[in-house]
Amino acid sequence: MTWVRDCGKCMTVHGVKCKVAGKKHIGQTQQQKKKRTQQHNNETRRMFRDGESHDSYSKHFFKQFDHEPSLKQLRKITEHETTWQGNPISIMKTFGTLHCTLCMKERCEITKAKLEKNNQIANSCNEIHGACRHKPRFHRFACKCSSADEPPKVKRVNMPSGKKKGKKRFSTDSVETTGSNHSILSPSDSFSACSTRKRNRRKKFFDSCQKNLPIRLEKFHVCQFD
């Protein structure tokens, strides 16, 4: 009953006792306790396939079986207990530092257990002297579910990623001056892909250019003849 009640807790320091060897492993997690235990069990089963060692938890339970065990067999030989739980908001502020609260609580529990029962602890010395590997993460408490074994799945909405359209610039080739009638080509062809707001701005610019272009050319001719 304690496992069903505590499996949804996060930011905890917990102990897992092996019923076969009688040893105890002390660990900590920033995610849910049930999720972290499933990761430990999958790493233990993966050692039978790949032969790669992961942590002291998987090394210990790897020695208790001659073949690859099922998840049900791993649950039968373990007893879980939660020794400490902290506030997620205040603990996340110390993640990645030398004074990480979650890591320090775990080190205190391991050191205390090693002084009392040195041979009954499955943890290694690296877990006492190792650096903090936690990263800040947002913990969402969206809704309360009655069953902790089957939490509700949160649907994530993925925004469509469209291709970025390059900006089209106005080219001087589109301006024609033929005889006395100075006209500018319509910008609908060159700016068809732009938004309506940009199109309206550029139309105003073209209209102003079309009105001021003959005046500028007349001034140019006057200056040239003078």
Notes on the structure:
The structure is a single chain. By secondary structure, this protein is α+β, with helices and mostly antiparallel strands. The chain folds into two domains: 2-129, no CATH class; 173-225, no CATH class. 40% of the residues lie in helices and 13% in strands. The longest helix has 30 residues, at 196-225. It is elongated, with a radius of gyration of 35 Å.
Number of strands: 5
β-strand percent reads: 5-15%
SS field, number of helical segments: 8
Which blocks of ≥5 consecutive residues have pLDDT under 50? 146-151, 167-191
Q: Strands of the biggest beta sheet: in what spatial order?
A: 2-1-3
Q: Average pLDDT across residues? A: 75
**Integer count of domains:** 2
Helix-residue proportion: 40-55%
Distance between the termini: 104 Å
Major sheet:
3 strands, antiparallel
What overall form do the CA principal axes indicate?
elongated
Radius of gyration (Å): 35 Å
Q: What is the element string, with H for helices and E for strands?
A: HEEHHHEHHHEEH
What key attributes describe this structure?
40% helix, 5 strands, 2 domains, alpha+beta, three-stranded antiparallel sheet, 226 residues
List the helices and strands and how they pair.
Blueprint (H helix, E strand, L loop, with lengths): L1 H5 L5 E7 L5 E6 L3 H18 L5 H7 L8 H6 L1 E8 L2 H5 L8 H16 L9 H4 L45 E4 L2 E4 L11 H30 L1
Antiparallel strand pairs: 1-2, 1-3, 4-5
Helix pairs in contact: 2-3
Give a quick summary of the entry.
This protein is α+β, with helices and mostly antiparallel strands and 226 residues long. The chain has helices at residues 2-6, 33-50, 56-62, 71-76, 88-92, 101-116, 126-129, 196-225; strands at residues 12-18, 24-29, 78-85, 175-178, 181-184.
